[in-house]
UniProtKB/TrEMBL annotation:
<dbReference type="InterPro" id="IPR019826">
    <property type="entry name" value="Carboxylesterase_B_AS"/>
</dbReference>
<keyword id="KW-0378">Hydrolase</keyword>
<comment type="similarity">
    <text>Belongs to the type-B carboxylesterase/lipase family.</text>
</comment>
<feature type="signal peptide">
    <location>
        <begin position="1"/>
        <end position="20"/>
    </location>
</feature>
<protein>
    <recommendedName>
        <fullName>Carboxylic ester hydrolase</fullName>
        <ecNumber>3.1.1.-</ecNumber>
    </recommendedName>
</protein>
<keyword id="KW-1015">Disulfide bond</keyword>
<dbReference type="Pfam" id="PF00135">
    <property type="entry name" value="COesterase"/>
</dbReference>
<dbReference type="GO" id="GO:0052689">
    <property type="term" value="F:carboxylic ester hydrolase activity"/>
</dbReference>
<dbReference type="InterPro" id="IPR029058">
    <property type="entry name" value="AB_hydrolase_fold"/>
</dbReference>
<keyword id="KW-0719">Serine esterase</keyword>
<feature type="domain" description="Carboxylesterase type B">
    <location>
        <begin position="20"/>
        <end position="528"/>
    </location>
</feature>
<dbReference type="InterPro" id="IPR002018">
    <property type="entry name" value="CarbesteraseB"/>
</dbReference>
<keyword id="KW-0732">Signal</keyword>
<keyword id="KW-0325">Glycoprotein</keyword>
<dbReference type="InterPro" id="IPR019819">
    <property type="entry name" value="Carboxylesterase_B_CS"/>
</dbReference>
Amino acid sequence: MRYPPLYTTVALSLFTLSTSSIVYTNDGAIEGKLHQYNDIEYLSYRGIPYAEPPIGDLRFMPPLPKKSWTGTLDATKQKAVCPQAESSYYKTDQMNEDCLFLNIYVPLPHNEELLPVSLFAHGGEFNALSGYDDLIYGPQLLLEQNIIVVTFNYRLGALGFISLNIPEASGNAGLKDAILALKWVNKNIQFFGGDAEKITLGGNSAGAALTHYLMLSESTSGLFQKAFLNSGSALGYRFLARHPVENAIALAKEIGIESNNKTQILLQLKEADAFTIVEAQSTLGKGNKRNGFRPFAPFVPSIEIESTNAVLTDEPINIIKSGIPQNVPTLTGFNAKEGMKMLPAILRNVSLIEELNGDFKLCVPSDLEYPSDSEELNNLAQSIKEFYFNGANISKSNIGEFVNMITDTQFYHSTDYWIKLHKAHKESNTLYYYKFDYDGSLNWFKLTNQIDLPGPAHADELGYMFVTRMTAPLLQNATDTDNRVMQNFLSLWTNFIKYGTPTSPVTNYTWPDSGEDRTYLLLNDQPHARAGPPLPSRTKFWEDVYEDYYEYIRDSGKLEPQIVP
Ligand SMILES: *[C@@H]1O[C@H](CO)[C@@H](O)[C@H](O)[C@H]1NC(C)=O
Ligand SMILES: *[C@@H]1O[C@H](CO)[C@@H](O)[C@H](O)[C@H]1NC(C)=O
Ligand SMILES: *[C@@H]1O[C@H](CO)[C@@H](O)[C@H](O)[C@H]1NC(C)=O
Ligand SMILES: *[C@@H]1O[C@H](CO)[C@@H](O)[C@H](O)[C@H]1NC(C)=O
Ligand SMILES: *[C@@H]1O[C@H](CO)[C@@H](O)[C@H](O)[C@H]1NC(C)=O
């Protein structure tokens, strides 16, 4: 019998609600809610505003800290998600531009000792999803490991990332939201029993890239002590907008703003309905032939002009080469078959494959800006086609090769490459590198998208980390191997969060610092460390491609911006 009799639960929750579920912070009182999960109890505080609503004149601006309040803030219910295209995940009536909330989950009981804190940034290509626990980010498995979990919303798409390269709209508002959430946690987590000196910033996909951007910024010094990045980095070409102003102007045109005066454009964009902006942004993306091969969103982080609020003012690769400002212990890696991320779109509409076969240059990552009619681009397209497909067209019969190509271009190479550049520094901090390669009954993305190819897709690890809506009913039927993989996964991540090292004295294998040879942990049901890089011939191929490109730029080769419209 796992659960106590009903009356005990009721009595206990009444007692707790009337005493300890109200937390008094310096900004005001917050009321949370008691929950039970398997053998633990925990308190949730959902929908705590950490910023003033980013509406009206504050749209596109860096967020302002939330002013203190009187009375007790009700944090017993989920609040709005940030505006995004309507999908099976969220409907428009769940969205509001007033969306800058965070959620805190505290395991019980806990004594005087302050607990380590994990601040987790959600994924969703910088234009979808939220930090809430309703779809993906149910924190119970992490709470069982006795840490505090904090999740948060940040502004998405154009509302979060538009840049006109002027002080009033300099870009990266969504990253600035994350920084303010971090500051809020530093200031207030002690009132929830959390240790403000043991904060680990982490995330998956866009949340991993967000984490990485904050590691590359001088502006986050002292705000977090460790970082984990599941499948994402600032070098991932789809996570950086190289021509944000052109995209902003195209968006303005899409909603009927014809001016070329940036101040005018900004004024009118601030007057537009938030959902008109969201809709225009979806329309822009659809018309793009490189859809799937150009930046997500297309409104994502960008390089800013210098200002007191700036997060990123140089190319990520330059920052990594010269030594990252937040040189903290890091845990990062990728999933063996990340590229399955592209399959739902492709399988829904086979004419997308035809389009790629008709013009293979569309498969070249959009940060390689060779002119469209150049010999360099044609040769590169041909060599990618040879390397992955032996020169054949993409088809159902070689879809596994297509998955590998996407895995490499969108996730693997950029992760492997930044690790290489970072670990070339003697003073680089410890970095734990993994390749997740387990295919069980809880692989979140494949379940959600009904994909039955072997290997773990992008975001599949989430089923071993969180109680997701998709996997919650499957947990009771998980196999022993699934459970072993899950417990191992959780102990690696939470040991890292607690102690800075993922393995513990009871772990029967070691996961060493990646070092210059990029040693990594093969993370499956028989985890063990291996000499890196994880995919040597694919690493070599892409390192050569980018070396050639940098040489082309050094030789003053002509470039053609790959902008979205
Ligand atoms: C742009 O518009 C602003 C606001 O209407 C105006 O003050 C400014 O003079 C304009 N700039 C130019 C170059 O026309
Ligand atoms: C499929 O993709 C093609 C090419 O991008 C597009 O023209 C067509 O409208 C799409 N069809 C559907 C049903 O979405
Ligand atoms: C590859 O696909 C393109 C576009 O559909 C087609 O024109 C071409 O003939 C195909 N090549 C082969 C070898 O099948
Ligand atoms: C779990 O397994 C039981 C027994 O085999 C079965 O009846 C039940 O439908 C399964 N539940 C799910 C969610 O698959
Ligand atoms: C570690 O322990 C697990 C579970 O007991 C076992 O399956 C695995 O083979 C062991 N691994 C090593 C490297 O000893």
